[in-house]
Amino acid sequence: MAVVVGFIPTEVGFKALAAAREEAEQRGGPLIVVNVLRAGVTDDPRHANDQQLEIARDQLRRATVRVEFRQETTEDDIADILLDVVEKEKAQLLVLGVRRQQDLARHLLGLTVQKLLLSADSEVLVV
Q1: Three-state secondary structure call for residue 116
Q2: Of 6, 36, 79, 98, which has the fewest beta carbons less than 10 angstroms from its beta carbon?
Q3: Is the link from the previous residue into 45 a cis peptide, with omega within 30 of 0?
Q4: Cα separation of 19 and 7, whole Å?
Q5: What is the pTM of this model?
Q6: Residue 18: exposure state from Cβ atoms within 10 A (0-12, 13-18, ≥19)
């Protein structure tokens, strides 16, 4: 069954990528890596550039399942893009990397993560 990972090019994002690979291999794959770009925003550290995508590809090169990379652009909610991919791919699992910050887990994990946890038609693994 398919595993989708919402990828951001940070330390926690690469940890989520590793966890997603492991889950996809256990479940028989494929693994779909999605990096969402905000339209009109140029300096967002969550946007993966070509070099960061190549590092991610290298990390997954020896995966025993098919791996697909996607960069999606939205003017709307990042969560909606990930939920759409999960639905279209009939994914069994959505993997998210969450930065560990204080301040009550940054007000209960942030709106995007909350929406994904409450709305995904799949299991959700938070790394």
Answers
A1: helix
A2: 98
A3: no
A4: 11
A5: 0.86
A6: middle
In the block, residue with structure tokens 């409450």: 118
Instruction: Return the pLDDT at 102.
Output: 47
Cβ atoms of 86 and 122 closer than 8 Å: yes
What one-character DSSP code corresponds to residue 45?
Answer: T
83 Cβ partners below 8 Å, 6+ apart?
115, 116, 119, 120, 121
Q: What share of the chain is helix, strand, coil (3-state, %, to 5)?
A: 45, 20, 35
Residue extents of the structural domains in the chain:
3-126
Q: Is the pLDDT of residue 52 over 60?
A: yes
Task: Provide the 3-class DSSP secondary structure of residue 105.
Answer: helix
Mean pLDDT of the chain: 86
